Amino acid sequence: MQAKAVILRELARPAPYAESKPLSVEDVTLLPPAPTDLVVKVIGGGLCHSDLSIINGSRGTPLPMALGHEGAGEVVEVGSAIMDIKVGDPLVFQFSVSCGRCRNCQSGRPQICEEAPKARAKGELISGGSRIRGDGGEVIRHHAGLSCFSNYVVVNRGSVVKIDDSISMDDAAIFGCAVMTGVGAMLNTANIRPGQSVAVFGLGGVGLCGLLGARAAGAGTIIACDVDDRKLAKAKGMGATHTFNAADPELKTKVMDLTGGGVDVAVELAGVVKAMEAAYSVAVRGGRVVTAGLPPTGAKFAFEQGDLVSNEKSILGSYMGSCVPVRDIPRFLAMYRAGALPVDGLIDRKIGYDEINEGFDRLASGDALRQILVPHG
Ligand SMILES: NC(=O)c1ccc[n+]([C@@H]2O[C@H](COP(=O)([O-])OP(=O)(O)OC[C@H]3O[C@@H](n4cnc5c(N)ncnc54)[C@H](O)[C@@H]3O)[C@@H](O)[C@H]2O)c1
Ligand SMILES: [Zn+2]
Ligand SMILES: [Zn+2]
Fold it and tell me: What 3-state class would DSSP assign to 352?
């Protein structure tokens, strides 16, 4: 069938993207679904910093690629081997499909499936190959097995989670990345206990979801840090009990004073090494440092090994919020319905294809938090 996709053909074109236009909206052909595939009509696709890191070249990828890894939609065609999904079902995309057989899948950690990165690195579905073709049969790669900035996509059954219709589908989009990553980092990776103190570094779409997750977990003192004062203002209305500019040279002293020696849990959600170093520095003796930010490929952060040892700190990486998507997307949606995770407050703009490049300028400058592309708007 014919579809429209948002395609990146060249890395690191200079900003502003409204002028250099790294993303083009192109007519493509979708191959028919394999038995384990679904065809999905995309209702909303969220613009995430992980897309920006591909566009600006800080995290490379094979090209040409149809972007989009956060989204929601409804099923329009079902592969012959799929028994549990029917046409019309609403669903959320998830960006880490899993094999179900490797060590990590066996131990209940499908988000770090050992097989999935192989397909992802090639821009293919986990069952092999791409389903997207450009002019003359050109193979267009999938982003994270998805490419959900397209108006229609063909994806593997394992790349979607069925949901109910209690949330508008364009709002549901952010559950696929920002919510799983931010809320999951707090509830799953950090495993925050009621009353614990938490500091969050980086207050974009992922960080503010993290803040809401910390509040939902019953954290006591919740400290929000960003270099952008507009984000600090937003955080005040979303669960932060205290806010500090991360560039403040007195930041560590202020956090230490406020918490009587450091926070129980310090979480880096900026994708910036300085933010990780700051998070590490404010963790209490015995505290946990969690990072879900994705800095440029090769970036390293430094810490004093003796401090790690003598203070028994833990450093934990968090991919997709350590979520099991089929368990956690419905769980977080239930929390949303109960009013415990008002994540729709993060969506500040819905855009059409004509604004896709400009949308990434807004994300890069901090002018927008979460913008949702509405392909059929
Ligand atoms: N682990 C995962 O599975 C996963 C999933 C999604 C996104 N991510 C990553 O999470 C990060 C955040 O994504 P987003 O979409 O929320 O990005 P965003 O651009 O909306 O937000 C990033 C925020 O970090 C702030 N920041 C920059 N430098 C800082 C510093 N030194 N200290 C504190 N804050 C600082 C920025 O001002 C901004 O508000 C990105 O690196 C993204 O790639 C990871
Ligand atoms: Zn993302
Ligand atoms: Zn696996």
Answer: coil
Question: How many percent of the chain have pLDDT more than 90?
Answer: 98
Q: What does the domain layout of the chain look like in residue ranges?
A: 2-176+342-373, 179-319
Question: Is 2-176+342-373 a domain of CATH 3.40.50.300?
Answer: no
Ligand 1, pocket-test mutation among 175, 273, 294, most atoms within 8 A of CB: 294
Mean pLDDT along residues 119-141: 97
Class of domain 179-319: alpha beta
The strand order across the sheet containing 283-291 reads: 242-245, 222-226, 198-201, 263-268, 283-291, 314-317
Q: Give the tens place of pLDDT for each residue, 140-181.
A: 999 999 999 999 999 999 999 999 988 988 889 999 999 999
**Ligand 1 centroid from CA 205, angstroms:** 8
Ligand nearest to the CA of 100: 3
Which letter, b or e, does each residue of 233-264 get, where b requires 16 or more Cβ atoms within 10 Å of its Cβ?
Answer: ebbeebbbbbbbebeeeebeeebeebbeebbb
